[in-house]
Amino acid sequence: MLLLTAWFLIPCFMSDLSSPVQLIDRFGRTVDYLRISITDRCDFRCVYCMAEEMIFLPRAQVLTLEEIYTLAKAFAELGVKKIRVTGGEPLVRKGALELLGNLGRIESLNELVITTNGSHLEAMAGSLKEAGVKRINISLDTLDADKFKAITRTGDLQKVLRGIQEAKSVGFEGIKINAVILKDRNHQEVNGLVQYAVNNGIDISFIEEMPLGVVGQHDRSAAFYSSESIKADLTRNFSLVATPEKTGGPSNYFRVAGAQTRVGFISPHSENFCSACNRVRLTVEGRLLLCLGNEHSVDLKKLLRANPGNTAILKQAIIDAMLIKPEKHEFNIHEQPVILRYMNMTGG
Ligand code: SAM
Ligand code: SF4
Fold first, then answer.
1. How far is ligand 1, taken at its centre, from the CA of residue 153, in Å?
2. How does pLDDT run across 166-187, given as a tens digit for each residue?
3. What is the reported pLDDT for 215?
4. Which of 27, 184, 205, 276 has the most CB atoms around its CB within 10 Å?
5. What is the C-alpha R_g of the chain?
6. CA 314 to chain CA mean position, Å
7. Which helix (H) or strand (E) holds 263?
8. Residue 200 and residue 161 in contact, taking contact as beta carbons nearer than 8 Å
9. Structural domain of residue 7, as residue ranges?
10. What CATH code is carried by the domain that includes residue 174?
11. φ, ψ (nearest 5 deg) of residue 301
12. 90 C-alpha to center of ligand 2: Å?
């Protein structure tokens, strides 16, 4: 292990920052995917993501759009090829479109994508496409308006469905539904959601709930509904064909026989995906978070504000941070959350 560590240290000490660099952690994983939470605020209060009463960060603690751009560019120069803009709800941040447009112009990026709750898509889908967003993930946990209201606490299902139709008509390269499945809350919805995805020619991923932050309303252990259970429910109605296809994330995909739709399963509890981890996150307050399920992080905002214009320092800090990227997450759905950070700050 010592030898391995020393070998991966070489790029840090020898880093010639003018030549192409790749971010490689001490387990040999290449990091080429950055998720950025551009705001902790949101117009929804999903029961698995937030508590009903949330205190959001004061503005001074949140990265400015210029700072986000500077950091994103530094990551791109270090070999990051894909950036996902998320939140909180990214589309409630003033200036989000301008930021996306600027990110879309970073030449070395292959992919600029976003995750949204869909509430602003009806108005913004066209502008997102123009800004250079290639693919879009939209959260949708149920097609029942009352359940939707209960899960999101404030959301309007019809508005989100209209947003999805607008996104379809604008013509993104890919649209995917994300659905977090909770036992006895929306687990009965999985067949209906896949049928919706099939009817609309889009993909869908089912996500096992992760224990981030104290959400209060439900017992996460009791609400756990595994990917295996979802698969079993789906195979009563659909023929699912395993496919090795990947979209750069932890989803394991199946094709719905006779349809375009891919059904993905993100299974942090039932099927650990950490060995193929290719990502890091920039939290809303400018921490480089090396793993969703651990607190190992580096305060890039502090460095950026202390050294204006000095991107070499930032890049070196990012390279060095690879040495503290943990091997795997430590989630345990059956225990009280040890991670007090909520998903909205982290950038899910
Ligand atoms: N507001 C946007 C949305 O909901 O799509 C983007 C941010 S949200 C934090 C990103 C994704 O994280 C969503 O698909 C959401 O369902 C998921 N998510 C939030 N809290 C989660 C949790 N505790 N476990 C698993 N997924 C979660
Ligand atoms: Fe908002 Fe997304 Fe969290 Fe729901 S999952 S509360 S939409 S940030």
1. 14
2. 999 999 999 999 999 999 999 9
3. 76
4. 205
5. 20
6. 23
7. strand 262-266
8. no
9. 2-346
10. 3.20.20.70
11. -65, -45
12. 10
